[in-house]
Design a protein that fits this description.
- Strand 1 and strand 2 form a beta hairpin.
- Helix content is 31%, strand content 27%.
- A five-stranded mixed β-barrel has the order 3-4-5-7-6.
């Protein structure tokens, strides 16, 4: 945002008692010349267009707060009612007639009717004042057979009720079952689309995952200009490129990644010292190859991140870079930036330096083999005898770093990350909890130490930068969690705010209880989502005041920017770009956060789809799980393999069940049978749908020691909810929980699929 726009917003915001006309603004800002007035008019028009200024009576301007405006992402349930969540305030409920053309997922400005008085636990009424950003500019769909021939049918349900006009290329022949993408030219009635390309047919192997990726704007193909630039980059480091860099090729250095990883962007070297350890974390210098404003750079900024879904990877950079010259492949000379840290025996980083370097990785290690070495596997120890001491020293150093972090309050959540394996046709053959051993934790701790150190360097020198920030959880969420924990028999006091250390101690106190998996997962869902910001605002979950992502520039654009700013301001001491860079890092933080959300959504959507597909041939089988959530339309059960399904209230054929929100339970009014959160329960798989990505369970009851399941029809007079009502509420629930936390603390890949926090 330009300085003039900031001045206008600051001026309007400071006049709380009255709104200002354009003439008032010009006078108060001492703008007199025709050029200055023209620039002011342009700035006000742009602020009005972006929804940051609003024009009231008499063409007088107010900011969002003065005009009663809140900005957020719109969620629309299947009844057509919209909701916009607000941090620390009541959600805004918007009737269908007041959506004013906004659709689910759009970023909107809403005007409320609360008059300054609200209960943060009850939604207030409002209306959409302005659509600030559409959730989609492309659509993915399937051609379906109709009496008038094949017609494009959007996969996204919220677009199915809209009239659509599709421009198709001359000579194109659509076939039923064909999947395609289309560009949205204009929203309205009809919505105007232009055909882009076919994807394949809906039952072809791999098309299901590709469809989800494209639906979230994640394209596996790179533009021609990007590929040409990548192909022109030499795949070996020249002597000239080594100049001005510290030569670390003589240091014993290794990479540690998942078995199926192909892009290695970090390497570690460690030596024992009299006072602790010297730890060198060397990161691929991607910024050397991806120069500012180049086709590679513009495409990387557009993508924001690599995307990992099941067995597919859509890289941020072409494989010529991500798996080639930028990857720290074993026995290959590579350009890096190194964070060189001295670590005390207590795990404290006593001092550090950051410098451009050249390394040669001596070994490509996997988490599995490192774990074997640490467990004393003789065969593996013999195979890697030349690095056995390094691995032992690295483990001791990382353990000391972790102990220090834990002592300072860093939270370590139990992971609900799934390990999903598929065969050559894409059919899931295994679903289970992902393993996280000592080797994974070692790298995580080393990466966090480097990220914190570089954040301190950038922040304390006030260099333009992109930081990783994590806000404390809202009081509303913690209060709800406290109530849930109490109903499960565990006290959690959230009245006066909670520090990370208090959450850490609480989770440790319940770790050995049966309720721990549910309580830990629900606590993780209470947390705010970590995002990127141009300001250094701290990381609540890690209990760090300064934090950023430095360690994965191959697969995350913010890391690449950190390397670029590090070179420009710290190595070269060039401040000539400061004004432009300060503006750019704001934009990069916003766009990178948005692209990360889309990548996460695609990942979760694909996982839910494959889990449902995995359960299709298990219909009729009985499993034991834990009730993880209770709603008035039913309850959700999570199995040990991480599959989650719903038991609908109308499948409980033994009477009317009353939802007790205070106790988070469903209770039968006659038999007093109760289903509450945290209970262990046996369920039978009733159905599983890959298309809707849902699994439905039925309760298994026992009678005389034998499993018995009641299947009587609903009795006359039995009170049940309409299908549309149940689905609407289910949809609302899924929207709130789709961004589940499944990330390692470092922002490091944990199993080769790019998990991050």
């Amino acid at each position: 945002m330009s300085t003039l726009k900031e001045d206008v917003l600051a001026l309007v915001g400071s006049n709380k008692k009255q709104s200002l006309s354009r003439a008032d603004i010009a006078k108060k800002l001492n703008l007199e010349s025709a050029l200055e007035i023209a620039e002011l008019d342009k700035a006000i028009d742009e602020l009005e267009e972006s929804g940051e200024l609003y024009r009231g009576r008499g063409n007088r301007y107010m900011n969002r707060e003065q005009y009663g405006i809140s900005v957020g992402v719109l969620h629309v349930n299947r009844r057509g009612t919209g909701y916009v969540d607000r941090e620390g305030k009541a959600s805004v409920m918007i009737p269908p007639a007041r959506l004013n053309g906004a659709l689910d997922g759009d970023t909107v400005a809403v005007r409320t009717e609360e008059n300054g008085k609200y209960n943060q636990y009850e939604a207030v009424n409002g209306s959409v004042e302005k659509i600030l950003k559409r959730s989609k500019d492309t659509l993915v769909g399937t051609y379906i057979d109709t009496p008038y021939g094949p017609r494009f049918w959007p996969d996204d349900e919220k677009f199915r009720g809209l009239s659509i006009s599709m421009k198709e290329p001359e000579g194109f022949t659509a076939l039923p079952g064909m999947k395609a993408t289309a560009k949205i030219d204009a929203y309205g009635d009809p919505m105007e689309l232009t055909f882009v390309r076919t994807i394949g047919f809906k039952d072809d192997p791999g098309v299901d995952l590709l469809t989800v990726l494209l639906d979230h704007g994640i394209d596996p193909e790179f533009p021609e200009a990007v590929m040409k630039q990548a192909e022109a980059i030499p795949q070996e480091v020249s002597e000239e490129e080594k100049e001005g860099r510290t030569d670390l090729t003589g240091d014993l250095t290794i990479t540690i990644d998942g078995d199926d990883s192909k892009d290695f962007d970090d390497a570690v070297a460690v030596t024992k010292t009299e006072t602790g350890w010297n730890l060198k974390v060397s990161i691929a210098d991607v910024s050397h190859y991806v120069t500012e404003g180049s086709p590679l750079d513009l495409e990387a900024a557009k993508r924001g991140t690599s995307s990992y879904v099941i067995d597919k990877v859509v890289p941020m950079l072409p494989q010529l870079l991500s798996n080639g010259i930028c990857s720290l492949n074993p026995h290959q000379v590579r350009l890096t930036n190194t964070c060189d840290m001295n670590i005390s025996e207590s795990g404290e980083v006593t001092d550090f330096t950051v410098y451009p370097s050249v390394i040669r990785s001596d070994e490509r290690m996997t988490y599995r083999n490192v774990n074997k070495m640490l467990d004393g596997d003789e065969e593996t120890l013999k195979q890697y005898e030349h690095i056995a001491r390094l691995v032992t020293d690295l483990a001791e150093c990382a353990d000391a770093i972790r102990a220090r972090r834990v002592a300072e309050g860093a939270i370590d959540f139990a992971s609900d990350e799934a390990d999903i394996r598929v065969d050559e046709t894409g059919k899931p053959i295994y679903v289970g909890p992902a393993e996280r051993g000592h080797g994974e934790r070692i790298i995580e701790d080393c990466m966090i130490a480097a990220n914190v150190s570089v954040a301190k360097l950038m922040n304390r020198n006030e260099y333009p930068c992109v930081y990783r920030v994590h806000a404390e959880p809202s009081a509303k969420r913690l209060t709800s969690y406290s109530h849930m924990a109490y109903m499960m028999g565990h006290s959690f006091n959230a009245k006066n705010g909670v520090s990370p250390k208090e959450i850490q101690r609480y989770l440790a106190s319940i770790e050995d209880t049966p309720e721990y998996p549910v309580l830990s997962t629900q606590m993780l869902r209470c947390m705010a989502k970590a995002v990127y910001d141009h300001r250094c605002l701290g990381h609540y979950g890690l209990a760090e005041q300064e934090y950023l992502h430095f360690t994965s520039p191959i697969r995350r654009y913010p890391d690449l920017i950190v390397h670029r700013m590090l070179r420009r301001y710290y190595y070269e001491e060039d401040a000539s770009h400061r004004k432009a860079d300060e503006e750019h890092v704001r934009e990069y933080a916003v766009s990178s956060s948005e692209r990360e959300r889309e990548a996460d959504a695609a990942e979760f959507e694909c996982e839910d789809m494959k889990k449902a597909e995995y359960m299709k041939d298990k219909v009729g089988m009985v499993f034991e799980g834990i009730i993880s959530s209770v709603k008035n339309y039913g309850f959700y059960v999570t199995l040990p393999d991480t599959v989650e399904g719903i038991v609908r209230v109308d499948s409980l054929f033994d009477g009317y069940y009353r939802y007790d929100e205070a106790r988070l339970a469903l209770t039968n009014e006659h038999t007093k049978t109760t289903y509450r959160i945290g209970d262990t329960i046996s369920v039978r798989v009733l159905s599983a749908s890959k298309e809707t990505r849902t699994v439905e369970f039925g309760v298994v009851r026992t009678s005389g020691g034998k499993v018995k399941e009641k299947t009587e029809p609903v009795k006359k007079g039995h009170k049940t909810r309409s299908r549309s009502a149940r689905k609407a509420e289910q949809y609302g629930y899924e929207l709130k929980t789709e961004k589940r936390g499944r990330r390692s603390a470092s922002g490091r890949k944990t199993n080769g699929r790019g998990k991050k926090r």
